[in-house]
Design a protein that fits this description.
alpha/beta, Metallo-beta-lactamase, Chain A, 10 helices
Length: 331
């Protein structure tokens, strides 16, 4: 089993089978990333793998008639998964998912392929950021209609836990003990293994059903920031620039490149920071700080999904990164 380096040349067999039946070249795969972004370890270690980069509704999106979706319906791209990260501690033989997306089946299998130890029927735990469809609905596959898991730890904030417990079908997962909810506290570190910890922190977002958090992930050598969903950076009570300075990698909300993407909805109702706004905010950062930033959680309309687009080339030319499926990072 492969672990610790790039998966190029060792694409998981289940994924390879999918890709062989796709006529479209896979965009922005790990082999396109520069070598200094690769994990180059040969033994057990702690690492993070990107398991998805898309906004909740995926791509192509349901009922989308735009060109960005039409081509994908003809030539599906099976690397286009909803945003999720995987964490692996090879020394302690532990693995975790961050987010339970509708693509969780493929993402869990990919996480197992990434690990050096024997495949697990279940991850050691799942961390949820909030109650929007792309971030928790994958839990349905642990119910009796599917895996019928036993006591899978799911880490949640208090309101998120109440939402799952008090609403069906999620409450059935709790009552049947398919999952066991473990409550998190903002800014309180959770030690998963002696080499890996996760700390949640609150961020402003459309909290209709639960609070929303980001995560600070710490390994023995490096740290990562994960904020897939947030309202404008100015609404947060902490400086994103300072938060980036405290970590080695920052996976941040890039739902929309600019306001032109959404011409049939009130953009004030979905106030994510535009990529062009983030780049302007980060313009004076050093090249080393800019290199930490990986834009993630891309809407199906986002031109950053196309590595040949002017927007993609603009972001890269300014020293930033766009996260891609199967990218690996040493922790």
């Amino acid at each position: 089993m492969f672990y610790g380096g790039s998966l190029r040349g060792a694409v998981p067999c289940f994924l390879l089978a999918f890709l062989l039946f796709s006529c479209k070249d896979v965009p922005n795969t790990p082999s396109d990333a520069s070598e200094n972004q690769k994990v180059a370890l040969t033994g057990p270690s702690v690492a993070l793998v990107v398991l998805g980069t898309l906004q909740d509704a995926g791509s192509p999106q349901i009922a989308c008639e735009k060109s960005c979706c039409a081509e994908l319906r003809k030539n599906p791209d099976y690397t286009r998964n909803v945003v999720a990260l995987g964490l692996v501690d090879g020394l302690h033989k532990s693995s975790y998912l961050i987010e339970a997306t509708p693509n969780i089946g493929l993402q869990h299998n990919t996480l197992n392929e990434f690990a050096s130890f024997p495949a697990k029927r279940l991850p050691d735990g799942i961390f949820l950021t909030h109650a929007h469809i792309g971030h928790y609905t994958g839990l349905m596959y642990f119910g009796k209609e599917s895996l019928n898991s036993r006591e899978l730890p799911v880490f949640v904030m208090p309101k998120m836990g109440s939402f799952l417990t008090q609403n069906g079908p999620w409450g059935q997962l709790v009552s049947n003990e398919n999952i066991v909810l473990t409550s998190m506290e903002a800014k309180k570190e959770i030690e998963l293994t002696p080499s890996l910890s996760v700390t949640p922190f609150l961020v402003p977002h459309r909290d209709e059903y639960s609070e929303t958090v980001g995560f600070r992930i710490a390994g023995p050598h490096k740290k990562a920031l994960f904020i897939p969903d947030i309202d404008k950076w100015s609404r947060w009570d902490k400086s994103i620039v300072r938060a980036i300075s405290e970590v080695d990698y920052a996976f941040i909300d890039a739902t929309f490149y600019d306001e032109k993407e959404i011409n049939n909805r009130d953009i004030s109702e979905i106030p994510h920071p535009f990529v062009i706004e983030s780049m302007a905010l980060f313009n004076d950062l050093t090249s080393e700080e800019k290199e930490k930033i990986y834009f993630i959680h891309l809407n199906h309309t986002n031109p950053l999904l196309d590595p040949k687009s002017e927007a993609y080339l603009e972001v890269v030319s300014k020293g930033f990164n766009i996260a891609s499926f199967l990218q690996e990072f040493e922790l």
